[in-house]
Design goal:
single chain, 332 residues, alpha+beta, Butyryl-CoA Dehydrogenase, subunit A, domain 2, Butyryl-CoA Dehydrogenase, subunit A, domain 3, 3 domains, 4-stranded antiparallel sheet, 3-stranded mixed sheet, 10 helices, 9 strands, globular
Length: 332
Amino acid sequence: MLFELDSDQRLWQDTVRDVTAKECPPTLIRNIVDNGADPEPLWKVYSGLGWTELTDPAATVELAIVLEELGRATDPTPYLATMTQFAPLAPDAAQPGQSGAAVYQGVTAHRDAQGWVLNGVGRQVLDGDRADLLAVVTESGVFEVAANQVTAVRTPVFDPALHVAEVFFDGVRVSGDPRTDLDVERARHLALTGIALSTVGACQRVLDLALDHVRNRQQFGVAIGTFQAVQHRATDMHVAIERARALAYFAALTIAEDDPRRRLASAMAKAAAGECQSLVFRSGLQLFGAMGFTWENDLQFALKRARVGEHLLGGAAEHRALIAEEYRATLV
């Protein structure tokens, strides 16, 4: 299948890329990581531009373009969690400029004479420590919980610009009944696709930096990019990225059209992105040589964003197993 963006989508991609280049340069990421700078002004830029309003399923491809570019820029804001995890589970609560996170498992709900009570621990919750609201998935339905009702502890992860937290629900009392009319499965498909797109963007950034390096790095009087072994590695990276990108955008299309293939497509996108980052991580470091291991090199931020994407919501092996199970089911 040949997938290409139309002229309006290419214009949208260029616009998003220009904004991220101006508002989210590597110097900002380094300032956040090294000095604890606040990413809130950047979040307000996204909100002011209307990027947080891309919640209509029909706009899923446009959202996908933003997610890929933000992955490429190592976005330090809660955009990914808010738009692909919280908003699908809390469509009425999602407001422009309001950040959210989703807790998919680990929390139970029971009802007493005074209402609903939540207990448990949500682990590896993306942006769980800085979200304004939480969408909590339980067997009884989906609850909306204010951040000040829970205890959230940020846990260290490989990517220092990314927030991942454990969220503790100790007898949290919520008002109102849970939402039982939401398509939680579809929401999870969007979450998987969002992480896949972010990973693809980060991998593209690694390749861009590597290509720039091998064009300018001289050895024996010539650019190392003229060496066949270097060209083969760069080509393998490009092919892996294009494959993962195509699957991620196909998943976005199935979600936009509510195509029943979205379950399989999102799993394929997540698996392909995980496999892609493994190859890109290894080859990107090797093309840079010892420079790639240094803190001063901006390559590290893209590498770390790509690697963490593999571990959020299940790795490539888990999703390959799901794909195999789906395939076997069609043979019965």
